[in-house]
Design goal:
It is built from eleven helices and 17 strands. By secondary structure, the chain is an alpha+beta fold. The protein has three domains: 97 residues, Rossmann fold; 57 residues, Dna Ligase, domain 1 (2-Layer Sandwich), CATH 3.30.1490; 177 residues, D-amino Acid Aminotransferase, Chain A, domain 1 (2-Layer Sandwich), CATH 3.30.470.20. The strands form three sheets. Strands 9, 10, 11, 12, 13, 14, 15, 16 and 17 form a nine-stranded antiparallel beta sheet that branches. Strand 13 and strand 14 form a beta hairpin. The longest helix is centred in the middle third of the chain and has 17 residues. Bound molecules: adenosine monophosphate.
Length: 368
């Protein structure tokens, strides 16, 4: 079996590294020529996506047929990011299935549509306005509010905090388009749920994960999340099951949540393997990457059971750490990317006695 992945980043790399032992072959579509291919070099065929037609109406059918052949005629295609050109996926869907479906990716690609999907399924999310003047929105939402671009916004990119009237007036003068203005949530903490569904509708969940962000970027995760009642856990799983079933979803999906007391508010969905699920490479019987591949390949899903308390520390903008700094209870995953400030270059997974021990290890590592 051959699976093609749109994107040449670290998630594609880790999907291939998890799928190769299953005897699956990989190819990669470089859909963004500015993206470096180093992460997936040597792991399979890499092909550039063709240029769009000049009138932007789509792709030349012959060029897409050629791309499909050059990719080694994959049995299915998946993505490592939600911001992919849907027209490219639609054109490729003539040749083989796309998992998750183009519709499911579309639903998570645009923050406004994602909010509508959550509302339709009665899943709580922060109140918001679409394309509304900030001065009008704050009359209902109060200060502060978050402005988020509906597309191209991840890791806190394309987001602004509006703290007062001067900020709101300034924002309104920008003439921005396609954004949401969202109430600022005074959450207790952030958690995520990574789950998956296969073609037969089998659904599995990983443990809820505590996530710590700085400047909108995930710094570290620890699983299982602490101080979460069984009721909250079941609530999160119930929301996820509604989403996966509604979208007839195939593959891994991540749901990022704010925790406010016993309540959950969904911040964002990711129709793909997720940074807050990287700990599963060391802490679960079957990691999210292998399970995503299993779901696409039509295999039974691997066991998501957690085998140890596990933490994940992102290595952001730093050189590769010295190997002697890694203890027997940690593993390094380096992505082979050029070092650049604010860039996710690798991560370390740690296992430990308990969450506090992991927090100490992470702090030790951060101070190196
Ligand atoms: P996002 O790109 O939506 O995942 O946002 C990145 C991070 O910004 C989140 O993980 C939160 O830490 C913070 N954030 C996003 N939206 C809100 C909000 N409405 N209220 C408070 N913090 C937020």
């Amino acid at each position: 079996m051959r699976i093609a992945i749109v994107g040449c980043g670290q998630l594609s790399r880790m999907l291939a590294l998890a799928g190769l032992p299953l005897g699956i072959q990989f190819s990669f579509i470089q859909d963004d020529i500015s993206q470096n291919r180093d992460c997936v070099e040597g792991l399979g065929i890499i092909q550039k996506s063709p240029m769009k037609l000049e009138d932007n109406s789509g792709y030349d059918a012959q060029a897409i047929a050629q791309l499909y052949q050059d990719l080694g005629a994959p049995d299915c295609i998946t993505v490592e990011k939600e911001q992919v050109d849907l027209a490219l996926l639609q054109a490729l869907a003539i040749f083989c299935p796309i998992y998750p479906s183009v519709e499911a990716i579309k639903g998570c690609q645009h923050r406004g549509q994602e909010k509508q999907l959550l509302a339709k399924l009665n899943i709580p999310t922060s109140p918001y306005f679409y394309n509304q003047s900030a001065l009008e929105a704050v009359k209902v939402l109060g200060y502060p509010v978050m402005v988020k671009s509906c597309t191209e916004g991840y890791d806190g990119k394309n987001q602004w905090l509006i703290k007062n009237q001067a900020d709101a007036e300034q924002f309104d003068q920008l003439g921005a388009d396609d954004y949401i203005i969202e109430a600022f949530v005074a959450f207790d903490k952030e958690i995520s749920l990574v789950s998956l569904r296969n073609k037969r509708g089998q659904i599995e969940h990983y443990s809820l994960t505590d996530n710590h962000h700085e400047q909108g970027i995930l710094r570290h995760s620890i699983a299982p999340a602490v101080n979460i009642s069984d009721a909250t856990q079941l609530q999160a799983q119930g929301y996820m099951e509604r989403l996966l079933t509604e979208l007839d979803y195939v593959g891994v999906m991540a749901m990022e949540c704010f925790v406010i007391g016993e309540e959950l508010m969904i911040n964002e969905l990711a129709p793909r393997v997720h940074n807050s699920g990287h700990w599963t490479q060391l802490g679960s019987i079957t990691c999210q990457f292998e399970n995503h591949i299993r779901a696409l390949a039509g295999l039974n899903l691997g066991n998501t059971k957690q085998i140890a308390v596990t933490g994940m520390l992102n290595l952001i903008g730093t050189e590769q750490p010295p190997f002697d700094a890694l203890t027997e209870n940690s593993k390094l995953y380096w992505y082979n990317k050029a070092v650049k400030a604010q860039r996710k270059l690798g991560h370390i997974n740690f296992i430990g006695e308990n969450q506090q021990a992991i927090r100490e290890k992470i702090a030790q590592f951060e101070s190196l």
